[in-house]
Amino acid sequence: CLWVRGHRQKKSPPGPFPWPLLGNAMQLGQLPHLTFCKMAQIYGNVFKIKLGARDIVVLNGERTIRQALVKHSAEFAGRPNFSSFKIVSGGKSMAFGSYSDLWKAHKKIAHSTLRAFSTLNTESTRLFEQHVAAEVEDLIQVFLQLSSGGEYFDPYHKFTVAIANVICALCFGKRYSHDDHEFKALVGRNDKFGQTVGAGSLVDVLPWLLSFPNPVRSLYQSFKDLNIEFFDFVKDKVSQHRETYNPEVTRDMSDAFIGIIDHGVGAGEVLGKEYVEGTVTDLLGAGQDTNSTALTWVILLLIKYPQVQKKLQEEIDRVVGLDRMPTSEDRARLPYVQAFIYEVFRFSSFVPLTIPHSTTSDVIIDGFYIPRDTIVFVNQWSVNHDVDKWTNPDQFQPERFLDENGQLNKDLIYGVMIFSVGRRRCIGEQLSMLQLFLFTSILLHQCSFHSDPKEVLTMDCISGLALKPQPYGVSVKARRLATSKTL
Ligand code: HEM
Predict the structure, then answer these.
(1) Is residue 419 within 6 Å of ligand 1 at its C-beta?
(2) Residue 286 Cα, ligand 1 centroid: separation in angstroms?
(3) How many CB atoms lie within 10 A of CB 434?
(4) Straight-line distance from the first to the last Cα atom of the chain, in angstroms, rounded to the nearest whole number
(5) CB proximity list for 335: less than 8 A, separation 6 or greater
(6) What span, in angstroms and rounded, lies between the C-alpha atoms of 143 and 148?
(7) Which mutation among 426, 431, 437 tests ligand 1's pocket best, with the greatest number of atoms within 8 A of CB?
(8) pLDDT tens track for 136-163
């Protein structure tokens, strides 16, 4: 503890004893968010650990997290100066970049462009919806083929291609086949990304691990390779766009960014040209792993709880009927589908810790002094599984989000934290909510999903920035002959 003028004590957050060299690295376990929940019971919602030589403050619980990220939003808006963060998106990442005036302009441009191509108004929503519906219809054919003869398959890799295709269509006006090996290889290694940049990854806090052969070093090498490969893929597409750019016609988001950044429309002039590639890479990367992981949880929970699946199908059949597909306009009339999606978010909390933050100046939270440039981990899981807030938080119960009239309880859904809050809040929230609604409702309208009776389904996870379920098998059956397309 330090002393300042007027003898007011600057109280440092409590925390476990840090061992020399490693600090508390060996205590994190396979699922650090669960370890942090246990530590919060001992030390309180704000506590300090050490990873290697770095001090890290961990924030838990809704009140404390909102107090920090919303009330003191600028003070908590930094990112740590990790070397892995500098590799992302050719060093021009907004998501992993430090907080500055340039960053504010960058985030504004990325957010407003993404909205303009997805959920800004009726027209953009309609176009976005067409892309999504086409992907789901294609995916259904792939699923049915894989299930022919009663086979079981793991849906995760199929979801990565479908989701990457939606964002590729927005960024480049182009989609890829499920059989395209190059594309599959490009999008199929997302887990290596999340395992390196997720809170609790050791490479940035124990850099000496890179000096001798070990699993952390090989993971880091894969991380570097995949970032370079991904960035080169985007560079190539953006340069084709520059060659054929016509200011009169904005074909897709790459054109929009070229217009704003290269041609200095509005706030774009403060960013250099290479930010076009950086921004497109960010959006392509950020949207993929999260949404395909979400869908992998959706299917797992549908087959784990067949009575929930049946209730969802009953609601969809009653509201949508049999002669058209569900659309975004059905959203408000499908409260159980929405409750199900919120419960998937809350129960799985599949982004349990946000991307690490850092403090941009000295700040006091819950009476504890946190100096500038401290790394901050934000435990979203602790909010979604808080026993004081949720009844039986470890049980999967979509009904918890419905009121006595069967309508969505807005106060309760506000209490689910998965897109973070404050200045670093995710910019893909509206797009993802619509996309997940469309995937879930169209898949359930058209198909039913079945587990392998020989397999015991577990809720065990593979750790990373996004928590993935352990691979599982599903078999898909068509509920009816393909409905005519009405979109
Ligand atoms: C950041 C969650 C989908 C773009 C984040 C963060 C979380 C998150 C937790 C970190 C916030 C923080 O550090 O405090 C999710 C979830 C998604 C999703 C759960 C899907 C269900 C998307 C999509 C896009 C996107 C589809 C874009 C196409 C971003 C960007 C950031 C971000 C650019 C960085 C924001 C910043 O640093 O200011 N997201 N995300 N996300 N997300 Fe998402």
Answers:
(1) yes
(2) 6
(3) 18
(4) 63
(5) 315, 402, 406, 407, 408
(6) 9
(7) 426
(8) 999 999 999 999 988 999 999 999 999 9
353 touches 199 (CB < 8 A): yes
For 89-105, write each residue's pLDDT tens digit. Answer: 999 999 999 999 999 99
pLDDT, one tens digit per residue, over 393-451 is: 999 999 999 999 999 999 999 999 999 999 999 999 999 999 999 999 999 999 999 99
Q: What is the mean pLDDT of residues 16-43?
A: 93
ipTM above 0.95, yes or no: yes
54-60, strands of its sheet edge to edge:
46-51, 54-60, 375-379, 357-358
Which of 388, 464, 453 shows the shortest CA–CA distance to 193? 464
Q: How far is it, in rounded angstroms, from Cα 191 to Cα 468?
A: 9
Tokens of 435: 């996309």
Question: Does 482 have pLDDT greater than 70?
Answer: no
The model carries a pTM of 0.93
